[in-house]
């Protein structure tokens, strides 16, 4: 039986307002006694509120454009906000982790995430991410900004070049994938297709590199792991996206703990950013069918290109 919701059941709008109120309370709590003094004259709770609003907007844009929130967070916050890069990168890892955890549960229920596919790549990415976090914390801030500008340029190139690419021959198999019994079934054009990943050695090596970059810069790995799974390993796109989120959920945890143990995570920055990104992602999922994702994607590429260029110029001392 369907009908109007009962008066005792809160509607979506009321739930969203309640979530926003709880988020603002968490922001105020996180800002209390915080050493975050990026701009003289502004108390920490104001910066917490600004980060909450900014991350809400970023989460909406990230979902519509089909990119992870972490890949937007680091260049934009690191370039346009007066925070030290260590705090920005530490927070970004938690932002990417929270977003991946909130989305991967849905894909697990739908059966589009394959644990046998996720585990070897998660292990490889975790090893690289731990090493990357240690290297990133040891680098001077100017060097990090220069390298970040170059990496963001590469991210923009990947986003442009992989748009609409094909995964290649799905019938190719790999002895490692066969030994680990990694395979799956997906629906394509109304029929079920059995797939098995290929080039496992190359894919694992690439995931070590992806994890290293994610650990150094705090970037979410979705911008690279999805193209690698889809184009290199030959995994169908839907399974690649779902499995990528699970890989991020696992591989982002070790470097997050490295940054946390080093004191590079501030509650006044991390709490409002994580909550804002999650709420923004939920709003974006509701708007994704109403806005032109192609135009938003190109807007994100242009925005990342500007942020990457400014980060490079800041690192070189030109700004």
What does this structure look like?
With 319 residues, the protein is mostly helical. The chain has one domain (21-27, 44-315). Helices cover 71% and strands 3% of the residues. It is built from 13 helices and two strands, in the order αααααααββαααααα. A two-stranded antiparallel sheet has the order 1-2.
Which features would summarize this protein structure in a list?
mainly alpha; 2 strands; 13 helices; about 325 residues; two-stranded antiparallel ribbon; disordered N terminus
Q: List SSEs in N-to-C order.
A: HHHHHHHEEHHHHHH
What amount of the residues lies in strands? under 5%
Number of strands: 2
Strand order of the largest sheet: 1-2
Helix content: over 70%
> How many domains in all?
1
Class of secondary structure makeup: mainly alpha
Mean pLDDT: 74
* Main β sheet profile: 2 strands, antiparallel
Ends apart, CA distance between termini? 63 Å
Form type: globular
Task: Give a brief outline of the structure.
The chain has 319 residues and is mainly α. The protein has one domain (21-27, 44-315).
What's the SSE blueprint?
Blueprint: H1 12-31, H2 44-65, H3 69-80, H4 85-110, H5 115-138, H6 141-161, H7 175-179, E1 184-188, E2 191-195, H8 200-217, H9 222-232, H10 237-251, H11 253-261, H12 267-287, H13 293-315
Antiparallel strand pairs: 1-2
Helix pairs in contact: 1-2, 1-12, 2-12, 2-13, 3-4, 3-13, 4-10, 4-11, 4-12, 5-8, 5-10, 5-11, 6-13, 8-9, 9-10
């Amino acid at each position: 039986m369907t009908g109007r919701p009962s008066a005792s059941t809160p509607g979506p709008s009321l739930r969203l307002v309640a979530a926003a109120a709880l988020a603002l309370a968490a922001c105020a709590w996180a800002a209390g006694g915080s050493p975050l003094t990026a701009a003289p004259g502004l108390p920490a709770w104001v910066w917490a509120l600004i980060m909450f609003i900014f991350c809400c907007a970023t989460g909406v844009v990230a979902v519509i454009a089909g990119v992870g929130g972490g890949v937007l967070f680091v260049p934009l916050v690191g370039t346009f906000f007066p925070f030290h890069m260590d705090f920005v990168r530490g927070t970004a890892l938690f932002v990417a982790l929270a977003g991946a955890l909130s989305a991967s549960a849905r894909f697990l229920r739908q059966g589009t995430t394959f644990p046998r596919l996720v585990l070897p790549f998660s292990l490889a990415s975790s090893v690289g991410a731990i090493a990357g976090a240690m290297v990133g914390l040891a680098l001077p801030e100017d060097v990090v900004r220069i390298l970040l500008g170059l990496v963001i340029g590469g991210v923009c190139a990947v986003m442009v070049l992989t748009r609409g690419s094909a995964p290649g021959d799905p019938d190719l198999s790999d002895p490692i994938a066969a030994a680990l019994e990694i395979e799956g079934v997906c629906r394509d054009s109304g029929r079920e297709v059995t797939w098995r990943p290929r080039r496992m050695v190359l894919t694992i090596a690439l995931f070590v590199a992806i994890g290293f970059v994610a650990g150094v810069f705090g970037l979410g790995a979705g911008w690279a792991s999805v193209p690698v799974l889809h184009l290199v390993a030959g995994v169908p796109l839907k399974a690649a996206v779902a499995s990528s989120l699970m890989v991020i959920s696992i591989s982002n945890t070790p470097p997050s703990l490295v940054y946390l143990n080093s004191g590079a995570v501030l509650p006044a920055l991390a709490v409002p950013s994580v909550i804002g990104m999650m709420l923004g992602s939920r709003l974006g999922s509701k708007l994704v069918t109403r806005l032109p994702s192609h135009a938003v994607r190109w807007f994100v590429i242009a925005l990342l290109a500007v942020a990457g260029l400014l980060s490079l110029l800041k690192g070189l001392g030109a700004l």
